[in-house]
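Can you give me the bound-state structure? Components:
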Amino acid sequence: MLEKALVGSKKYYALVFFLAAIFLVGFFFFLKQLKFGLGITGMSRDVSWGFYVAQFTYLVGVAASAVMVVLPYYLHNYKDYGKLTIFGEFLAIGAVTMCLLFIVVDIGQTHRLFNVLLHPTPHSMLFYDMIVLNGYLLLNLICGWTALHAVYKGTKYPSWVKPFIYLSIPWAFSIHTVTAFLYAGLPGRHFWLTAVMAPRFLASAFCSGPALLLILIYIVKAFTRFDPGEKAIRALAKTITYALLANLFLFGCELFTSFYSGIPGHQFSIKYLFAGLHGHMKLVPWMWTAYALMLVAAVLLVIPQTRNNLGLLPLLCVLVVIGTWIDKGMGLIVGGFVPNPLERITEYMPTFPEVMISVGIYAAGFLIITVLYKIAISVMESRGLI
Amino acid sequence: MHDAGKVIPGIIAFVLFVTVPFWTNFGKAAPKPQPEIPKEYKKCVESKEFMRREHMKLLRKWRFDVVRNNMRIYINSEGKPINMSLQNECLRCHSSKKKFCDVCHDYVAAHPYCWNCHIPPEERKGWATKEVKSLTEEASSEQPASHH
Amino acid sequence: MVIDTRVCQKYAPCEDCIHACHHLHNVPQIPYKKHEVKWIWKDEFEHAFPDTAHEYANEVLHGREFLLLCNHCEHPPCVRVCPTQATFKREDGIVMMDMHRCIGCRFCMAACPYGSRSFNWRDPRPFIKNPNPRYPTRMKGVVEKCTFCTERLAEGKLPACAEACKHGAIVVGDLADPNSEINKILREHFTLRRKVHLGTGPSVFYII
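Here's the bound-state model for the whole set.
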């Protein structure tokens, strides 16, 4: 099947080379970072995680969200997702790969990465994160690839793969739960110390991931004969709507607990993010943008006429993706570090090299997704399915 | 075979490419390394043969014992106690990293990064460049070193 | 460790302990605050004890500066989160750093509720003016903090800060031994610990 990735239209080659070129630019900046150290980024003693960890967190959500098409299709036999499932799984493969790359660029001693395997530490949440992320990558490779291979051969997927499919469903929930636990179990970080962290992570994942999937599907649809069908798109739009509402609801719960209790420590980060603290307000415009986008998207998605407007839907998806990206990425990670444990304020903004390295990783991830989608489309075409 | 005309030259080119180091160094044997042995000391921690073969393992064990087990004394095969310290014990006799450590390490292209942290005798005077020195002096005269 | 902050106030702005520690351990003096590395430093009451400070605190507390360092917690969150056991608790209670093993993930920095940990955002060496040749430096990409001078304790010496203090403001001893000097001081004085409500069990006490 792999040979399908090697033959394509001029536009396909152009896209592949374009993404590869951006990846190389990012890699060049990564080499600079290796030479100088992480001081090349905007991170500091007080804000010791930044853009990389933010992208990591966001993309774990995107990866986990594949379960929103896998679960209805395999557990409830929801046939309309038949064609979408493979695309969901392939998106997960790209997303998990990006997650792993963001970890690689974030650690200070890159070549010591495998110390995590050499000295396994079951009381560290990062240990479990390593297991669940790599496991999830493997599961999606197995499930996605065998499913597509079955299409290629014109058969049903083999029965040995069933246990892996069923396992991948709770596993998807686990990756984002463990990622939430990285933050939610730390004493002294009030903004993160909340039991709804994991549920909120899942809620934002299950709206942002499917929204990204829909955007990609619309792009694929525009350039190929592939069409998942109106019914599938509408069903996925409903998933996005409910998950977005759950995400906003859980944020409201956070607001209530912090402000009705009146405990200052629980309010500082939220105040910093939305109103600024002692004149420090770098993230304020970003946060209001994020919530304005999510609220507008939520209202328009709840109204059936606008949700079912298939021309408007991709735009709404863009609102959801950007809104959740700011909120969960920058807002959640940086917000947790401001103010610092001594209640002093150091602000953070990513630097140019930091952004370029991140863009490079996104290019690598989308390169993987492009190639995998190309294979899937070509296989479906060769079988006359589309 | 399909495309034999492309595949076989391709394989040959690949083999040539990955063996480039052999071709560029062909016939140019580097001289055998001669690390400088301290004259005033007769004996190392263990026998010469042992040290030559096992020094990296010994240092790794020392490192583990000192940092993680809070054990600082090594008893050698003769029963002699030795302070386990690369920087303060090994380099007490081997007073030059360049003439001792580097000689063999360079020969075998091994690059242990002990020296990123441990200070070799040659570098005891420090690393501060003039530029950085003036910067730090400025900072420390303006305010107490640790002040916010 | 007990720090008598009354003595510190009396001899302010004395920084002998800080200089001794930072010189002995080759802690770099990086002027760029975001990349700062520090093992022991001073801060005001409302920042050292943000949960205890209030607007009606007396003037004495307002002017006083508090020495801050790793608390060598009884239940250290940094040790809990470290994925490689690069930071670990020794049998004697000292929370130790193994710089050889640290991968620089900075999870411990997020976990420490006292801001006691520093990361080497760049090569620290150019910022060490007068290195101590008996102690290593660190390299870029690892986290460091106060080690309670394990290298000095092994030789039967006091931690550098305690020894450097001419005024006897810093007392170090064995909390587990009920007859130790430090337990006597703790019985006789009112002391504070930082953020006790977090359950970390800090081992640094402040006489107010």
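A couple of observations. Chain B touches chain A at residues 148 (CB under 8 Å). The two ends of chain B are 73 Å apart (CA to CA).
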